[in-house]
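Subject: Predicted fold for Ammonium transporter, 479 residues

User T.R. writes:
Posting the sequence so we have a shared reference for the thread.
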Amino acid sequence: MEFPSNLAADEASPEWMNKGDNAWQLTAATLVGLQTVPGLMILYGGMVKKKWAINSAFMALYAFAAVMICWVGWGFQMAFGQNLVEFLGKPDHVTLDQKFLLDQAFLGYFPNATMVLFQFMFAAITLVLIAGALLGRMNFVAWMLFVPLWLTFSYTIGAYSIWCPDGWLAKLGVIDFAGGYVIHLSAGVAGFTAACWVGPRSRRDRERFPPNNVLMMLAGAGLLWMGWTGFNGGAPYVASTDSALAALNTHVCTATSLITWLILDFSVFGKPSIIGALQGMITGLVCITPAAGVVQCWAAIIMGLISGSVPWYTMMILHHKIPLLNQVDDTFAVLHTHAIAGALGGILTGFFAVPKLSRLFFLVPDWEKYIGLAYGLQTGRRAAGFKQMGVQLLGIAFIVCLNIVTTSVICLFIKLIVPLRMSEEELEIGDEAVHGEIAYALWDDGEKYQMSKNNSVYDVDEFPSSMSKNASYELSQMV
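User M.O. replies:
I've generated the structure tokens; pasting them so everyone works from the same file.
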């Protein structure tokens, strides 16, 4: 047996690489990926009407695959590469080069390949969250065009501006720990804007849109919640005390938000709602995301109380009083669960951020940045605290304006090529008209089953009268 040379071993595990950090980052990336495939696929597929189960899950699956190709092709370099302008990197195919992928990432003690994979998972889930506002009526071909265009001309700008060390908001000191701005605020605003351009679901679907499988919906929601351990825990790019704190704060805030929403539902409507509890879960996850590793655990509880009540009020009360919110058909209310919850998280981060924890995350000694307003007032650094709050508000304004403009331009461009909305016939029939498939194929629906070793296929009505349907079904199960 030939053992690898020392040179080969050094190349496989260079001195700058921390194996523990690399292993954790790959694990975190996998957890975030599971939030999307299968998490959001199952959540969307179970939460919609039966006739839209395939289309909804398929939109998520397609987005995940399409973003992967775009990300390694040019997206990662536009979001984290060499500076082109203050808010965007140079598009480059260097991400496909082996030498680049094996070199050390711009942050952390692991290779670029790990960073590219982890950041891809963030980019992919953002597009899938946007789909939540468009389910049940968007033309699938239009969606196929929307995904690469929005990733290229919107997501990369937000990511570069806030997360890349050369980005203009990053230089100002904005705190977005794991994507409250880049992912959730962006997805909520873009989803609502796109829903405005695409148009509403059919009148019948808007009036009645019950979930087709509540248990499957819960399974998807569970994957989403548990996967958030990697979502926020992976943000520091290191297996550290800060990543552990981020994971704990995530679950504390989420549990508090879920229970708060549940209590409000029960108090106002008289019944505890499972769908309401899931909404509270999501708003808690979103709200803590920009703050997860820079706030104390008691602050996470306060954030959970706010994320479980303010979005509840905007969704359950205010939504029905504002004409614009009524007119735009936001299928899964991503404006409330992601845009409003994400903005709340950013503001509360600016208030509760602990200077010591911020320094652990950003690894800088700068005392004039990353100071929550509460601590600025407490320590006499009021100017620094108010400045941090101002930067947080500026980040919100930038992401909102960016996504309204870019999403509108993209939708108008796609509209020149294909319709944004399905035809009336497709809206009436659903999956069978759009994809030629249905989610739940029952024997009585006349589905075809493979019956013989020579792969002959028979329809229910083709069986001889001497063979009962039950017998033929049992036979099909044996093949």
